[in-house]
């Protein structure tokens, strides 16, 4: 898939982030919104027997080439494919948008875990774990994590 082939099949509105079919496809008439939501919340579009994430197609459509890295949704909304909300970034930078703790987290709070009856705050910066301290309350540990995250320059 290249930009020319993409533009023969789909129209992309950078203001809304919506793709629509230019050509009819079987029972799907031209003008129909393209794509379906995946289990993970991202929009996917099937073209020519292959399935692509809509945010990656948006980059191809607008930049004329596939992204070099990952396409990040700046506001964290996986289905918001407006051009102003997308940026081509490394995986390290993309991880900085994480807003929820991973499944199985002992506290359910991003950057905070239980450790020997206290709350440990830590952050990963450029692939390295940084210990931020042990705290008596989950709130204090979370505050330390959020302050450290704010201090990390991701742009």
Low-confidence stretches: none
- N-to-C CA distance: 30 Å
Structural class: alpha+beta
Question: If strands are numbered along the chain, what order do they take across the biggest sheet?
Answer: 3-4-5
The run of helices and strands is: HEEEEEHEEHEEEH
C-alpha geometry? elongated
Profile the largest sheet.
3 strands, antiparallel
Number of helices: 4
Number of strands: 10
Protein model, in words:
The structure is a single chain. A hairpin with a 5-residue loop joins strand 3 and strand 4 (43-47). The protein has a three-stranded antiparallel beta sheet. The protein has a three-stranded antiparallel beta sheet with strand order 8-9-10, covered by helices on one side. The radius of gyration is 20 Å and the shape is elongated. With 155 residues, it is α+β, with helices and mostly antiparallel strands. The protein has four helices and ten strands.
Question: What's the SSE blueprint?
Answer:
Layout: H1 3-9, E1 10-13, E2 18-21, E3 36-37, E4 43-47, E5 50-53, H2 54-63, E6 70-73, E7 86-89, H3 91-95, E8 112-115, E9 118-125, E10 128-135, H4 138-151
Antiparallel strand pairs: 1-2, 3-4, 4-5, 6-7, 8-9, 9-10
Helix pairs in contact: 1-2
């Amino acid at each position: 898939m290249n930009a020319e082939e993409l533009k023969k099949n789909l129209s992309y509105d950078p203001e809304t982030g919506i793709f629509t079919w230019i050509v009819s496809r079987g029972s799907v008439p031209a003008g129909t919104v393209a794509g379906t939501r995946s289990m993970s919340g991202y929009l996917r579009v099937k073209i020519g027997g292959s399935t692509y994430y809509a945010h990656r197609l948006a980059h191809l459509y607008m930049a004329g080439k596939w992204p070099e890295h990952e396409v990040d949704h700046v506001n964290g909304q996986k289905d918001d494919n407006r051009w102003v909300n997308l940026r081509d970034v490394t995986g390290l930078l993309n991880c900085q948008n994480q807003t929820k703790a991973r499944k199985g987290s002992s506290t359910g709070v991003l950057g905070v875990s239980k450790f020997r009856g206290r709350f440990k705050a830590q952050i990963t910066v450029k692939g390295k774990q940084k210990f931020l301290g042990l705290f008596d309350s989950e709130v204090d540990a979370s505050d330390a994590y959020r302050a450290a995250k704010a201090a990390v320059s991701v742009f």
